[in-house]
């Protein structure tokens, strides 16, 4: 199926400790607040034309509010909506103008497990800038992965309904596939699904300018006393570097760089076995993946499934 989705725009999360979370993403993580009120904060990456890459919202319960992707035109949003309706996908709302920063035109719907997904077009680009050498702040939102107790069905849903393509799969032995990397453009992955005990946010990854800026960001987090969950290392699937941390609501966030760019005409998906430690970390600099890291990444059960966020 021809994909109508062009790229990942933003991930929106809610949590009770809003002020603490907002401080983490701005003062510690390096995003720039572009709009806010007492209970919502829109956060941009300095090097990205997206109006925001993270939206924080105060709520009594922690949840994933929204995962947003871009489309090229309003007509593509309408075409996608017609496809979704024909497939029996449950809409949150029909395509309509957005009143979030940058405006635009978007449809919202539930995926097969109840996550809210938005696809938008005609969002006004943000005035952004080139990230300077040695500047350890995110250039853009790279990718978002979600946990699923029914990952095969969820991967198939995103391929069938949204036109994602499988780049690579990770497994533990020949019989247990555990992680699927999906793309909507020539970046190795913008989205992915991880086998987990329940539907939940797995991690969001932020692209740095290069290896030096990535290491400086990793070092800055260390000097600030932020405990590193896993890394620094370099994955096999995607060939990208990784340093993982927990935000103030217990969501996993990653600094990365040099994510692989694929040739669509020649790429064939691989199956990488994580029993070979080089498939998790080519460099061998990170601790081996363990149950503690996995459990933290499984996160809390998402309280937002099949419940549309208030904005």
TrEMBL record:
<dbReference type="InterPro" id="IPR037523">
    <property type="entry name" value="VOC_core"/>
</dbReference>
<keyword id="KW-0560">Oxidoreductase</keyword>
<protein>
    <submittedName>
        <fullName>Glyoxalase/bleomycin resistance protein/dioxygenase superfamily protein</fullName>
    </submittedName>
</protein>
<keyword id="KW-0223">Dioxygenase</keyword>
<feature type="domain" description="VOC">
    <location>
        <begin position="140"/>
        <end position="258"/>
    </location>
</feature>
<dbReference type="InterPro" id="IPR029068">
    <property type="entry name" value="Glyas_Bleomycin-R_OHBP_Dase"/>
</dbReference>
<feature type="domain" description="VOC">
    <location>
        <begin position="7"/>
        <end position="122"/>
    </location>
</feature>
<dbReference type="GO" id="GO:0051213">
    <property type="term" value="F:dioxygenase activity"/>
</dbReference>
<dbReference type="Pfam" id="PF00903">
    <property type="entry name" value="Glyoxalase"/>
</dbReference>
<dbReference type="InterPro" id="IPR004360">
    <property type="entry name" value="Glyas_Fos-R_dOase_dom"/>
</dbReference>
């Amino acid at each position: 199926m021809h994909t109508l989705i062009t790229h990942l725009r933003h991930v929106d999360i809610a949590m009770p400790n809003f002020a603490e979370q907002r401080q983490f993403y701005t003062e510690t993580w390096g995003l720039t607040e572009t709009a806010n009120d007492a209970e919502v904060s829109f956060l941009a990456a300095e090097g990205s034309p997206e109006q925001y890459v993270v939206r924080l919202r105060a709520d009594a319960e922690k949840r994933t509010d929204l995962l947003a992707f871009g489309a090229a035109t309003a007509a593509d949003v309408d075409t996608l909506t017609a496809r979704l309706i024909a497939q029996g996908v449950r809409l949150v709302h029909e395509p309509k103008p957005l009143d979030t920063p940058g405006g635009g035109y978007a449809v919202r719907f539930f995926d097969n497990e109840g996550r809210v997904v938005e696809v938008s077009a005609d969002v006004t680009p943000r005035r952004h800038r080139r990230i300077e050498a040695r500047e350890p702040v995110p250039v853009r939102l790279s990718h978002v992965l979600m946990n699923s107790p029914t990952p095969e069905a969820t991967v198939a849903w995103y391929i069938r309904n949204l036109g994602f393509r499988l780049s690579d799969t990770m497994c533990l032995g020949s019989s247990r596939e555990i992680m699927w990397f999906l793309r909507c453009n020539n970046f190795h992955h913008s989205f992915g699904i991880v086998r987990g005990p329940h539907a939940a946010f797995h991690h969001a990854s932020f692209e740095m300018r290069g290896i030096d800026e990535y290491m400086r960001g990793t070092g800055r987090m260390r000097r600030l006393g932020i405990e590193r969950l896993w890394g620094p290392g370099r994955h096999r699937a995607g060939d990208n570097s990784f340093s993982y941390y927990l935000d103030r609501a217990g969501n996993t966030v990653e600094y990365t760089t040099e994510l692989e760019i694929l040739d669509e005409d020649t790429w064939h998906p691989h199956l990488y076995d994580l029993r070979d430690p080089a498939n998790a970390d080519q460099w061998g600099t990170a601790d081996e993946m363990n149950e503690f890291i996995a459990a933290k990444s499984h996160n809390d059960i998402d309280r937002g499934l099949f419940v549309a966020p208030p904005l």
